[in-house]
TrEMBL record:
Signal peptide: 1-27
Protein name in the entry: Protein tyrosine/serine phosphatase
Superkingdom of source: Bacteria
SUPFAM superfamilies attached to this UniProt entry: (Phosphotyrosine protein) phosphatases II
Alphabetical UniProt keywords: Signal
Similarity comment: family membership: Belongs to the protein-tyrosine phosphatase family.
A Pfam family: Y_phosphatase3
GO molecular function, one term: phosphoprotein phosphatase activity
InterPro entries on file: Prot-tyrosine_phosphatase-like (IPR029021), Tyr/Ser_Pase_IphP-type (IPR026893)
Gene3D superfamilies attached to this UniProt entry: Protein tyrosine phosphatase superfamily (3.90.190.10)
Length: 357
């Protein structure tokens, strides 16, 4: 399944939230959930002490609200029945210091989704970790199956922020809000404005100007997070550029380190499934739409559309360059959040209280 190798590469960072640990040091380490097949996942960890594993359909459930699937296990790995149409969260209880970790599949195993993942699990400020089941990111979703909708309904998404342009939304409408009852938020803009500088010259600093161009959408994402009315989901077309910038800003506000932010961003290359990001298109049906020729050309390539690595020809990360520009222009990411998005120190404190545990 797409994303399994990436999950293993990041297993040292995909450590779930700690509940009640006495110190920042975790007895259980390198916890990760990897899908084996349509009916099973492997829960793996590192710990010198025996560990009990519990499963729950609720992301923040405690041990009493979860079902035990392994007791005092020393093997470091258990295989658990978990259907692809079920969203499950796992609690690992250390029998040495009694600490509890939460962990889940980062990538949702959708039949026809692309790059849909939970942003939880990474270590943030004060030794805490980003909560699971509260914030999700994705690429476009025009070809979701009934089974996919069934799984996504379990996420209890209350707000969907569509980062895409009017041109993109027109040809690949988002139907998830209709199926889940979530509030749908978008801002109208032309893709021509977004693409004015993207990919120009030698490709360096390709995200130049995105800090101001995406202000309306970014403000909506952070406002939704601060309202705390339920799970928030945001997406663009590929779930990598605009969505990657948005995720990086959220992680930065929560105190996730830069190396982790960049590695998570670059997971998109492997986790994308471009064939499900856009329905079949006839250019004659969309005269004047600037994105249609691009998608039609990509679909005609041998093997169909493919995800390209998010690096310049010189090997520089697009996101690293964007964050470099933000820090040069504003002094820091937090200063940018305050000046341009209106997310001040009190808001960041609230975000940490809401989304770290």
């Amino acid at each position: 399944m797409s994303g399994i190798r990436s999950q293993r590469l990041l297993s040292g960072m995909i450590v779930a939230a700690v509940a009640g640990a006495a110190s920042p040091a975790l007895a259980i380490d390198d916890a990760v959930v990897t899908r084996i097949d349509s009916g099973h996942v492997a829960v793996e960890w590192k710990d010198a002490d025996p560990v009990s594993v519990f499963v729950s359909a609720v992301p923040q459930a405690d041990r009493k609200g979860a079902r035990a699937v392994a007791k005092a296990d020393r093997s470091g790995s258990v295989v658990v029945a978990s259907q692809v149409n079920e969203r499950r969260y796992f609690l690992l209880r250390d029998h040495g210091d009694r600490s509890v970790l939460r962990v889940a599949e980062r990538v949702l195993p959708l039949e026809q989704g692309s790059n849909f993942r939970d942003i939880g699990g990474y270590k943030g400020a004060d030794g805490k970790h980003v909560a699971w089941g509260k914030v999700f990111r994705s690429g476009a979703m025009p070809l979701l199956t009934e089974a996919d909708y069934g799984m996504l309904e379990q996420l209890k998404i209350s707000t969907i922020v569509d980062l895409r342009s009017t041109d993109e939304r027109m040809i690949a409408p988002n139907m998830l809000d209709d199926r889940t009852g979530a509030i749908f938020i978008s801002n109208d803009y032309s893709l021509k404005g977004l693409m004015a500088n993207y990919g120009k010259g030698d490709g360096e600093y390709a995200y130049r100007g995105m800090d101001t161009f995406l202000k309306p959408q970014l403000k909506q994402v952070f406002a939704s997070l601060l309202r705390n009315e339920g799970a928030v989901m945001y997406h663009c077309s590929a779930g990598q550029d605009r969505t990657g910038i948005t995720t990086a800003l959220i992680y930065s506000a929560l105190g996730v380190d830069r190396a982790t932010i960049l590695k998570d961003y670059h997971l998109s290359t492997e986790l994308r499934r471009p064939q499900f990001e856009m329905p079949p298109l006839d250019p004659a049906d969309w005269p004047g739409n600037p994105i249609v020729p691009y998608y039609v050309a990509s679909m005609k390539k041998p093997g169909g559309p493919k995800a390209e690595p998010l690096f310049t020809s010189k090997g520089n990360s697009h996101l690293a360059q964007f964050l470099e520009m933000v820090e040069k222009d504003y002094g820091s990411v937090t200063a940018y959040l305050d000046k341009e998005l209106g997310v001040d120190a009190d808001d960041i404190k609230r975000l940490k209280a809401l989304y770290l545990e």
